[in-house]
Specification:
By secondary structure, this protein is an alpha/beta fold. The chain has four helices and four strands. Strand 3, helix 3 and strand 4 form a beta-alpha-beta unit. The relative contact order is 0.24.
Length: 101
């Protein structure tokens, strides 16, 4: 899995350790891509070799999710992957509205 992690989202609560522990204990291969500024989530997803992953995990707030989804939707090769959402923003309106808490 490709983990797109925004350390500056919301209240800046560091959940990276918790997520990586769960993935490691489940023997799930993952790679972390940490965003550093605006549109990094989009750029990361645009440049990933999706053949190396089975899913994307967006960790952050609504902005992070927006960038990851749009990065996937606007890929020139039109490749797609499932996206998991880990809400870690201040409001998490998108995740709340679809029942992810």
């Amino acid at each position: 899995m490709a983990l797109i992690y925004n350390p500056n989202s919301g209240k800046r609560r560091d959940v990276k350790t918790e997520i990586t522990k769960i993935l490691s204990e489940s023997s799930i291969f993952y790679q972390i891509y940490e965003t550093k500024g605006p549109m990094d989530g989009w750029r990361i997803v645009q440049n990933l070799d999706l053949d190396n992953y089975s899913a994307l995990i967006a960790v952050g707030g609504d902005g992070t999710l927006h960038e990851v989804l749009n990065g996937l939707m606007f890929r020139s090769d039109k490749k797609k992957l499932p996206i998991a959402l880990v809400p870690n923003g201040s409001g998490n309106d998108t995740c709340t509205s679809i029942g992810i808490h």
